[in-house]
Design a protein that fits this description.
Strand order of the largest sheet: 1-2
Low-confidence stretches: 13-18
Number of strands: 4
Mean pLDDT: 82
Strand content: 5-15%
Shape: elongated
Oligomer: single chain
């Protein structure tokens, strides 16, 4: 006799555990303000129980060296203090961490997620607008800088320009020679065809 083994189906998971995109909080690096994903980076807790999160060892080393993030060129703080990124905006109020306990409510959670997406859209649009305004005069500035650079190092460019003119002259001459040869060939073919018809 053979025993039939009954296969037990896997336990059904609730939708909140399977499709939930927001499982853990994504912290911000204390030094460079980039996101610290769960399981990445390091945390440092000071004697006064203040917690510092770092996205990578580079930020942690700079923090230990007591460097100011506003003076290190690759950090968000530096970019904001120099006016390279949007520093004052109402959308930043939503990012502030609130430690008030709120009773779970499914409708409230859904509305919160929709609101977070909408705030993110508004923030990206404002960032793009800020960047466009900042880069408005950049093209003219680049042209001025290029002109100054050319005036400084004209002695380097002069031989290259002379060679370029010579090369262009050679190209034009060879093109004219090819065109003339084609014309001659065409005229010769027409004459031979005319002679064959006669």
């Amino acid at each position: 006799s053979t025993k039939e083994e009954k296969q037990t189906p896997p336990p059904k998971l609730s939708p909140s555990t399977t499709n939930s995109p927001f499982k853990m909080r994504i912290e911000k690096c204390y030094f460079c303000s980039s996101p610290c994903y769960p399981g990445h980076g390091t945390a440092f807790v000071r004697n006064d129980s203040k917690k510092f999160r770092f996205c990578r060892s580079k930020c942690y080393r700079n923090f230990n060296k007591k460097r100011n993030p506003r003076k290190v060129a690759w950090t968000k703080a530096y970019r904001k203090t120099r006016g390279k990124e949007l520093a004052v905006d109402t959308t930043f109020e939503f990012e502030k961490r609130r430690n008030r306990p709120v009773k779970y409510d499914r409708d409230l959670m859904g509305k919160t997620l929709v609101a977070m997406q909408r705030v993110q859209e508004i923030k990206t649009k404002r960032d793009e607008r800020f960047f466009a305004n900042r880069m408005k005069d950049a093209k003219a500035e680049k042209k001025i800088q290029a002109r100054v650079e050319i005036e400084k190092s004209i002695e380097l460019l002069a031989p290259a320009v002379a060679q370029r003119e010579e090369v262009m002259r050679n190209v034009v001459d060879s093109a004219r020679a090819r065109i003339a040869a084609r014309r001659k060939e065409k005229v010769r073919q027409e004459r031979t065809e005319a002679m064959e018809e006669d």
